[in-house]
Amino acid sequence: MEINAIHVDLNSAMLRPETVRAMLRAAADAGKNAVLWEVEDKIRWESCPDVPHPDAMSKDAFRALLDESRALGLEPIPLLQTFGHAEYVLSKERRKAMRELPEFHDCYCTSDPDARAFLRAFAAEYREVFGPLRFFHFGGDEAYRFGSCPLCSKRDRFGLYAEHLLDVTAETRAAGVRVLIWDDMVRHDPARLAAALPPGEVALCHWVYGPWPDGPDAFAPPTDFSKAAELAALGFGVATCGAASCWGDDPFLPRYARHAPNLVSARAAGAPLLGSVDTSWTVRLVPKRLQLPLFAADPAAALARELPGLAPDAALSALRRVSRWEADWQHFLGVGWNGMKDSSPPPPGLFAQRAAERPAFLERLRANAAALRAGVEAAAAEIAAAHPDADPGSFAGILLEGAALKCGLVRALEGAAGAGPALPADGLAALRARTAAYYGREMTPGTAARAAEIVWGVFG
User: Fold this and answer.
1) Are residue 281 and residue 368 in the same domain, yes or no?
2) How many domains does the chain have?
3) What is the pLDDT of residues 404-427, one digit of tens each?
4) What are the C-alpha distances in Å from 259 to residues 239, 265, 291, 364, 393?
5) Does residue 321 contact residue 374 with C-beta atoms inside 8 Å?
6) Which listed residue, of 241, 318, 382, 414, carries a Cα 20 to 30 Å from 256's Cα?
């Protein structure tokens, strides 16, 4: 397959260079051939000097990472969001006029000629930084407010989507670079998009992460990529995408029972097509070190090797249990609380507000929290007993600290829900400090502290 990639996502948190290098080495060791780079505000761009994060890299520093990646046999694929997930741009005062709706800072107005000109210039700077390219990803996912402003709402949505995409990618396509986009905004009627695009110039990244928590199969492994063949039959190139972390994970550990079969299924479905991408969404905060074994061709075997003190079956059983989580509890957490990828800490009183809005989820939390926490504690005890001298920076050490923080989070949720004693202020402060240190192994200090605030701010 042409694309066998991992996703390096710097949205929402600035990863330390050594964290990124560890991901690149793991990708090369796993036989990957490409990296999908979602860098956003973590480079000091000239096109938008008001956008960069305080810890952003210079363009030369990033080029050095690209050189290291290429030396490992990993082709770079840039990702620039051009429909939604533009919080890092549209939150800035001087960029507000490009918003789809004035009160939301995630989506561009795709009818705005200034927004299109800005995106074309931004894409040109991306091409200048990345150098020679075969593929360039232009985002397009989860743009839920797309086409909703007074001007855009008068247009046919598929026609507007195709027109905007073709406009902002014109110079890229003219340079012989193939355009990729996420497929979720168009997968319900992909034939209409296929009819509106030049044949062969745009390929779809078909992501499937699994059923959402409202249904009875919330914990079913998401392995159904049958839609990929339908998209390919319409003439699209298709890269299938699973996830090593995504919505529904707790903020400390990836759900191994879900992610391992998801990634294996995505790769199998993509093998006869354009390929596959192992995504890893940093907005979910889960440490990258705990995700690296999932990039391996055989994630189960790689995970078992990380816990050598246990027999393989026992290791996998412990990992499944220690990482279990009820995805609908996500609604009570500060991670992504506003539906935006802007790393905003949650406001005071959020838990009470969400509890009032979602009484059924609250009742499931009250009913299930103690049992889930007991299961996590039991699995963590098995892992700790088998690895008594685990280095804090090792897979086992990070896993055990994550399990302890997760149990603290469950206790805090139990207290907030009235299902147990409320954690005292000094207890919450201690957990917040431990969380900042936990994330600080991989993130810069400022972003680690902010991540800790996102996790614990929901409790006041």
Assistant:
1) no
2) 2
3) 999 999 999 999 999 999 999 999
4) 17, 10, 9, 23, 23
5) no
6) 414
